[in-house]
Amino acid sequence: MEEVVVIIGAGPAGLASSACLNRLDIPNIILEREGCYASLWRKKAYDRVKLHLAKQFCELPYMSYPPKLPMFVPKNDFISYLDNYASHFGINPRFHCYVESVYYDKNASKWCIVVRNNKLNTTEVYIAKFLVVATGENSEGLIPKVPGLDGFEGMYMHSSQYANGKDFNGKDVLVVGCGNSGMEIAYDLLYWGAHTSIVARSPVKSLHLSSSLEPFFTFPFQLIYISYSKCML
Is there a single domain that holds both residue 102 and residue 174? Predict the structure, then answer.
């Protein structure tokens, strides 16, 4: 199958690329290995997650967020925004298409993309003049090799498998890492009644801010002190 542009990945970047091309009437297709677009948001994001930047900095091209949405857009509202975006710009990814290999044919000056269609159990080859790789940087969760982890009798998981803390009420839970996900998951665990601790690889610097800045954070302001103090364990 020969195409003008092939886009790999149907996350927000892939959808935005396709929308921009569609506006210019440039033929394109999106190849997506999952059965839906924005699969990380639909399948691997915890319930409480929100955009970590204000919505005006997270709009896709040529479509603003509805004015009624809060400054930090919640997960389900962001997914609805992507649904409307795909519908508005006529984006129809080809799902269950896992890209196995890509190479550039210098003689033909075109890209060759070998794809395994997991739904049809077939191998497909796409030829394209241009290739856009929009697979993102967080598509695969990584749990580092920690000595003794294999013998740990409790439950452990990557943050991409965490939905909410409902099942952790009254339990001792250790969150490894205090980036955006670690901090929000720690708060969610506290909310659901878990005994939560955090460990961080590097020292954490605390910054005391006025409570007037609370509307600019995606989690309660009081958590800043609680979580940072736990990081120093």
Answer: no
